[in-house]
Design a protein that fits this description.
Blueprint (H helix, E strand, L loop, with lengths): L2 H7 L2 H6 L2 E4 L7 E4 L1 H16 L12 H17 L24 E4 H4 L3 E2 L14 E5 L2 E6 L8 E5 L7 E4 L3 E3 L3 E4 L7 H9 L3 H4 L9 H5 L2 E4 L2 H44 L4 H12 L2 H4 L3 H16 L13 H19 L22 E4 H4 E5 L12 E4 L4 E2 L2 E2 L5 E3 L3 H5 L10 E5 L3 E6 L7 E2 L3 E6 L5 H9 L1 H9 L11 H6 L1 E4 L2 H44 L1
Parallel strand pairs: 5-9, 14-20
Antiparallel strand pairs: 1-2, 3-11, 4-10, 5-6, 7-8, 7-10, 12-22, 13-21, 14-17, 15-16, 18-19, 18-21
Length: 555
Amino acid sequence: MSDIAALVTDNLDVWTGATERKSGAGRGGGKRISLYGIDRLRALILDLAVRGKLVPQDTADEPASELLKMVAADRKALIMQGKISKPKALPKVGLDEISVPDAWATARFGNIFSLEYGDNLPEPKRSGTGEYNVYGSNGVVGTHHSYRIEQPCVVVGRKGSAGALNVSTEPCWVTDVAYYCIPPAGIELRFQFILFQTLGLDVLGKGIKPGLNRNEANVLPVGLPPLAEQQRIVAKVDELMALCDTLEKESAGAMAAQQALAEILLASLVNSADATDLARDWSRLERHFDTLFTTDASIDALKQTILDLAVRGKLLERDSREEPVSLLVQDWKKAKGTALKSAGDRRIKIAPDPKAPPFPLPEHWAFQSFENIFLFIDYRGNTPPKTSNGIPLITAKNVRMGYLDREPREFISEETFPKWMTRGFPKVDDLFFTTEAPLGNICQNDIEEPFAIAQRLICFRPYGDVNTRFFMLAIMSRSMQKVLDDHATGMTARGIKAAKLKLLPLPVPPTAEQHRIVAKVDALMALCDALKTQLSEAAQTQRNLANAITKRAVA
């Protein structure tokens, strides 16, 4: 077994266990899992390949110095034919710039390879039925009936996805946002592609003026093995990359299966008949936390399940000594009536109880509309004139799911403030809710100093004795987010009007139970965060191991 094969097989747990969270798309944000260890292994294989450490050298191979002569003769002929540009004079490669085996040769990129500009397509510019691929900055963008490059080549992104690489083995057209590079005599196309992947061409394209400048690429030092060794390198890289693909599929499949199992078991919790059944099911699940919840996604699913259990009244058993929820509802109605008489605020209306509860609740709970629980303080689609400093302005951009973010910071003038905030001033622990872009973000206000609020944001001011954190957690749950989405409008940017939102039902437990639920949820969320911390630390350890093995391999 070769050294590199042993390096792979002896450290499978490191390569497959080293993961990394990366930003992902989706409503409310999210993370995707990157198999960092396998990505690192792929990079290591390529790095060893171009350093001459992937396959042994063969003294029977023609030395690479002869290959350089072949390349020089081929390039001279192409320059005279006008097929490639004549490069500027480049300095010789220093001994300390690159280390390669004795049988290899070194040269500047521009003395071996020529990055040539692509060109605009001839008319008709767009054709979906052509027989020749058209390459843009980051791959095939269509087909055409004509071709410009007859020989196999490597396509290099110039603008947009600068430094992105693709291989064309057939005649093709390369557009003006990319370069093409035909391998000179004595250079294998696939070896050229492997070499280009290790040069950091994508990094060169991220300068002050984004876009790959070929003059910067031309000065890079490169190592060239004999042609026969190039062919052996290509074969070995193909073999090892196939092994990486297999490892990745197996790891991704195992992670997907584990996630599916976790979600099935979590769904069984939500479907538990009562708190007694839930306690039994939870105990059974808790014994397997270390094997079920091993990714951020699975822990996030656990958090959402906790919120669903809370909002459906399944997280705690009832305490019959607590005051019934009917007394709380009566208190709200009295408070609304008093506010209406004293303030004459036409926004305050006694709305009927919701007629169609969206999901079942315990018998001692109730459903009440948003309008019966909260006074709405909002400024519809208006935005006050902003200034560089002054009174802070809180907008929908500051309202995250479960917390208030003071960034980005915006302001209005002290003169504008009293004229703008005519509908009421938010108090600490009031709730902020986003009506669109995104819909349904909710948080508690924790700002004590004066501030203003702007469009796409509603402040929920409770009428009576309410644990606003309970209602925040309830609105964050999948159950209530579905209610919101079912009543929203719009295709891509979903939103809901205040008039429709006021009529939607919210679950209401007795006051004392609200407090007990919040305490229980906070304790369970702390457990989930501790699990995430352990996972993050374990994943970092695995990444450190992968990096250490990589450094040892190239040392």
